[in-house]
Task: structure prediction
Amino acid sequence: MQGALSLVGFGPGHGEHLTIRAREAIREADVVVGYRTYIDLVADLLEGKEIVSTGMTEEIERARAAVEAARAGRKVAVVSSGDVGIYGMAGLVFEVLRETGWEAGRDFPVEVVPGVTALSSVAARIGAPLTHDFAAVSLSDLLTPWEVIERRLDAAGRGDFVVALYNPQSKRRTWQLGRAQEILLQYKAPETPIAVVKSAYREGERIVLSILDRMKDAEVGMLTTILIGNSNTTRFGDYLVTPRGYTNKYALDSGELLYQGVDRPGRSLSRPAGWTPGTDPRGSGAA
Ligand code: SAH
Result:
C-alpha cells in the first residue's frame, strides 16, 4: 500500500476557519503528527487515529517520524496552526524529504494544505490593517541569530511597512520586544496604532488596541501576534484601517479616479468626509 503525506495548517484554532480540504486531509490520515497544543485543537477529528505528539523542541523528530511513517505506507497528516508553511513544520519536513532521497512522482505523494495564518485571522479581528504592503517578522531567536532579526525589523521600519510580529515574547524571551520597539520607533511615530491580539478565534481571545510607544505595557505571550501600522494607518473605533494607497486618487463615494500620479493634491482617503474617529459601528462590548 502506498503511503501519503499531508502538511496541514488548520487556521487560528476554531473549526469554522479550518478549510474543507484541511478537514478532509486530517480525516483521511491514519497517523496525525503535531505539537501537543495543536493536536488538542483538532481533537474532535482524531478518533481512531494514531497520534504522534511531542513537545515543541522535538520538531525534527516529529518531521522524521512523519516521513518514515509515509514511507512505510501509512497516510500521515502533519498538523500545525495557521498555515503549515508560515513559521510552521513544512520547511522542516521538506528538508527531511530531501535528506532521505524522496522523489516526487516516484515516492509517496506529498500535499501541502494551506491554512488561515495568524496574520490573516488577527487582521480580520481588527478590521483592515493589511490593505497595503506589510512585513512579517518572528522575534524568536531560537533558530535565527538576533542580528538578522534586527536587520529585518530595521528594513521593515525604513520601508514603512505594516509590521506583524509573530512569536513576540515567551517566558524566556523577554527583552526582544523592547528592542523591536526601539528599532521601529526610529522610523515610526510613537502614536502609530498597534493591535496586540492573543488567541484570535480561540478560547481566551484578547484584543488590545494601543500605540507603538506603549507596546511593552501590553500583556504579550506565546499566543500573541502584534500588528503595527504604517504611517497612514488610523484607529477607527475598535478597528485599525490602513488605506489602500498613499495618494488621494479615488473619490470614496463614486470610486471615480480623481487624478493620476502622486504630486497633485486631492481628497485624503484616510480621512474622508463623514469620518468620525472614535465611532464603533459594532457598538459597545465588542472586543
Ligand atoms: N503557522 C502559524 C504560526 C506559528 S508561529 C500561522 O501560520 O499562524 C506561532 C506564532 O503564531 C505565535 O507566537 C503567534 O504570534 C502566532 N499565532 C498563532 N495562532 C495565533 C492566534 N490564534 N492568535 C494570535 N496569534 C497567533
Summary: Residues 9, 12-13, 80-83, 86-88, 117-118, 121-122, 166-167, 197, 199-202, 222-225 surround S-adenosyl-L-homocysteine (CB under 6 Å). The chain has a mean pLDDT of 88.
